[in-house]
Design brief:
With 171 residues, the protein is α+β, with helices and mostly antiparallel strands. The protein contains six helices and seven strands.
């Protein structure tokens, strides 16, 4: 089964650091977590205290963030919940596939990443090392996620519905 920490290390290399660029619609962002898009993230109060202490200097903020184990844990927990667990990526056997879906989820959204995985599974099937997975709704809140299904791929994402036979498993 795929391991979150391995995927996080790869994607995290591209998501690291603090920025607050006037032309960035995400405004204040830490390690890819935008204050505009994730205003209730529990790490923002710590970040704001760091900014009060060292000023709006990205180099100094980044140095402080690297020393703050609690903040680093909050960042990791955020990504695990929002981009890994939402698509049940730990159930994927092939680590590279999980890494790709995770990274895609971070960059294009978890629903689109799940759709891409589903398309790839139909093209490559068992070669990917994954069983049939369906895209569904988590607790009826419209968030896309992957869930294992035994013989049928159920397409239930955002406004669609139907059943498609899985070409690699028989009922």
């Amino acid at each position: 089964m795929a391991i979150f920490e391995l995927a996080e290390k790869i994607t995290g290399a591209s998501e690291g650091g603090y920025s607050n660029h006037k032309d960035d619609t995400g405004k204040r962002t830490l390690n890819g977590v935008s204050q505009v898009h994730w205003p209730n993230w529990s790490g923002w109060p710590i970040v704001m205290k760091i900014i009060e202490r060292v000023g709006e200097n990205a180099v100094k903020i980044n140095a402080e963030v690297k020393k703050d184990k609690v903040l680093l844990l909050l960042i990791s927990s955020f990504y695990k919940k929002a981009f890994w667990e939402v698509n049940s990526l730990g159930k994927i056997i092939d680590q590279q596939v999980a890494n790709t879906v995770y990274d895609s989820g971070v960059n294009i959204g978890t629903v689109q990443a799940a759709k891409l995985l589903q398309r790839a599974r139909f093209v490559f099937g068992p070669q990917l090392g994954i069983a049939c997975y369906g895209i569904g709704r988590a607790q009826d809140n419209g968030v896309g996620y992957l869930r294992p299904v035994s013989a049928v791929f159920e397409l239930e994402y955002i406004g669609s519905g139907g059943d498609l036979s899985c070409p690699y498993h028989k009922p």
